[in-house]
Amino acid sequence: MGAFDVVVLGGGTAGVHVATEVADGGQAVALVEAGLIGGESPYLACVPSNSLLLSAARDQTWEDAVARRTEVTGGLDDSAPARRLRRAGVTVIRGTGRITAPGTVEVRLAPDAGQAAAGPTVPLAYSDLVIATGCEPVAPPIEGLPDIPAWTTAEGLCSPDLPRRLIVLGGGPAGCELTQIYASFGSQVTLVEAEAALLPGEPAFAGEILAAALRRAGAEIYLGSRATKAERTPDGLTLALADGTRIDADRLLLATGRRPRLGGLGLDALGLEITPGMPLPTTTRCEVAGASGPGRVWAAGDVTGTTNTHASHYQASVVAANIGGQQREADYSAIPRCVFTMPSVFAVGVVPGIAAADQDEAEEDAEAGEEDAEAGRDAASPAVAGHGSGSDHGSDHGSDHGSGHGAAAADDRTRRMLRIARVPAEAGTQPQAQTAAETGAAAAVTAAAAARSAEADRNAAAAHGPRLITARASLGDTTRAHLGQDDLGCLELYADAETGVLAGAVAVGPDAASWMGEVTLAIRAKISVAVLADVVHAFPTYGEALETALRELAGTGGSKIFAYQQEKGTGPLSELDMETPEGDAIEQHQDVVEDETGAAARREVPLDVNEADAAEQERAVGFDDDDYR
Ligand SMILES: Cc1cc2nc3c(=O)[nH]c(=O)nc-3n(C[C@H](O)[C@H](O)[C@H](O)COP(=O)(O)OP(=O)(O)OC[C@H]3O[C@@H](n4cnc5c(N)ncnc54)[C@H](O)[C@@H]3O)c2cc1C
What we know:
By secondary structure, this protein is α/β, with parallel strands linked by helices. The chain has 3 domains: 2-137 and 260-332, FAD/NAD(P)-binding domain, CATH 3.50.50.60; 145-256, FAD/NAD(P)-binding domain; 424-601, Enolase-like, domain 1 (2-Layer Sandwich). Strands 1-2-3-4-5 form a 5-stranded mixed beta barrel. Strands 7-14-8-9-10 form a 5-stranded parallel β-sheet. α3 (46-57) packs antiparallel against α4, α3 (46-57) runs parallel beside α7 and α8 (204-216) packs antiparallel against α12 (442-464).
C-alpha cells in the first residue's frame, strides 16, 4: 500500500492546484484522476466556450472556430499537465478513487491503453485527504429524453458539428453562452427556460438585456416554459412544452444544472451522509465538517458548491495553506460570477432579492440552531436540502446547496456565502411565453428592466428593513459606448446602507469582467463608497459609468438616494457613516479653521481630500490580522 501525506481525489482545477502547492511545500502527494488531468475547465467548459465565443465575435467561420478550439484545448491531450505535476513531485495515479475507511483510499486503476477491462485496485494511506471531484450534469425528468439526440454542455463544446436546428434547454450562464455560440455560427437556436427570465439568480435587468442580445443574434427564446416531452422524429426530434408548443430540432443541448460529484466516493466510510445533489459541507477553512478521522479531510472546487474556476482555485490555495500548517479562512464576499456572452454579464457579492432571501435563511438558521441547541443535537451534523436555481455555470438550475441546521456559526456563514449566487429570483414575477424573435431597442429594455429592478429593491427593503441601496448607470452615457456605437449596457451597485460599503454589483456590457475588477476589490476590502466615489477612471472607458453610480450612492451626485432616504426617514448617507468626499473636505476645513483660531503659531494644514480618504479607509476597511492568516 502506498502511504502519502496527502491524497487528492480529482485532478481538475482545484485538485491540481492543491497537489502542486502541497508538493512544493515538501509533502508526499498522490493525485488520483479518473479522466483528464486539468478537469473540465481547460477541455470541456471555460476554455472551449470562451474560444468559440471569441471566434464568433471575430466573425470567423465555424471550421476556423473549431480548429482554434481544438488548438486551445490541446486536442484533449492531458499529457503536458500530467508531466508538469510529476515534475512538481506529485505522484499521478490514473484511476477512480473511493474512500474505504478513515485514512484509506482505494483506487481502481484505469485500464492500460488499448485494454477494455479496468485495471487492478491499489490502496493508498493518507494523513490529509482532499476531495476535489467537481460536479456533473443533471438531466431534468422529461418523458422521452433518453431516446432523443441530446448533448451535455461538454459535448456541445467539443462537437465538430453545427446542427441546423438546436434547442438549448436552460437559460443559465452555460445555456446563454452556448445559445450565442451556435446562433452566431448560423444554427437556428431555440432557448427554453423554465423560469421567467434568463440568469434566474441575478437581477432581472441582466437577463433581459441578454435575452435581447440573443434574439438579435437570431435565437428564439421561450421563458417561463417547462419542457414536458421529447420525441424522436424522422428528421430529428420534437420537444413539447407545458403550454402545448412543439419545437422541432436536430439536436437538444441540456444546460439544466449540475450537482456535486459525490456518488460512489464512499463518504459513508467517513461517517458522512450527504443528501443527493447537495455539496460537501465545509468550514471556512475548507475542511469537511463532520468527517471522522484518523486523517483530516478537506474539499475544494465545485464539490463544495462553488461553481467557477476562480473559486476552485481560491479554495485550493486555502486548503494547501491549511494543510501546510497555516490558519487560513476563505472569504466568499466577492467571488465574481460571469457570463462571457456579448454583452457579457458580471455579478459579484449580494444582489437585492438574494440579500433578502439570505437574511430570511439566516433568521431560519438562527431559529433552527436554537431549536437544535434545545434538543441537544449534534452541532456539526451535515447539511440538509436547500432550494432554488442558480446562476453560475455549475448550477444552471436546481442544483442548489443547503445549510446544515445547527452547524457551527462559521459553517453557517460559509454556506450562506456560498449560496449567494443560488437563491431563486424574487417570487412574484409571472412566467410569460415569448415566441417572437423580436429585438426591441436596447435602451427600452434597459429602462423597463431598471424600473422593475428598482421596484424589487423597494419591496425587498420594505420587507426586510433598510439594507441595500441601489444606484444604476447606463453604459450608453459613456463616450466609450458612443464610440463603439453600442448602448447595450447597464450596471447596478448595491451599497449596505448601514456600513457604507459596497455589498454587491451587477454589470452588463462589453467585457464587463475587466472593468468591474475594482468593484470586486472594493467589496472584498470593504472600501467605503465615499472613497470609491472619488476614484478617477480613464477616459474614454466603460469604467466611467461606475463614477455616476458611486457618486449617487455617496450622496454627491443624484437625488434618488436622497429621496429614498427621506421616504425611509433615514437621512442622508453621511449620517450613516457614509462620508462623502465633500463631507471629508468640510470636516478638514473645520479642522483647519479650528487650528487657525486656536493655535498661537499659524500652521499650514492642506485641504487634502486624499489624506482624509486614507484615514477613512483605515477606519472603514478595518482589516484585522485574522483576514490574512
Ligand atoms: C459549459 C461550462 C462553462 C464554464 N465556463 C466557465 C468560465 O468561463 N469561467 C469559470 O470560472 N468557470 C466556468 N465553468 C465552471 C468551471 O468549469 C468549474 O467551476 C471548474 O472546472 C471546477 O473545477 P473542479 O476542480 O472543482 O472540478 P473539475 O474540473 O470538474 O475536476 C474534477 C475532476 O475529478 C475527477 N474525478 C471525479 N470523481 C473522481 C474519482 N472518484 N476519482 C478520481 N477522479 C475523480 C473528474 O474526472 C474531474 O477531472 C464552466 C462550466 C461549464 C459546465
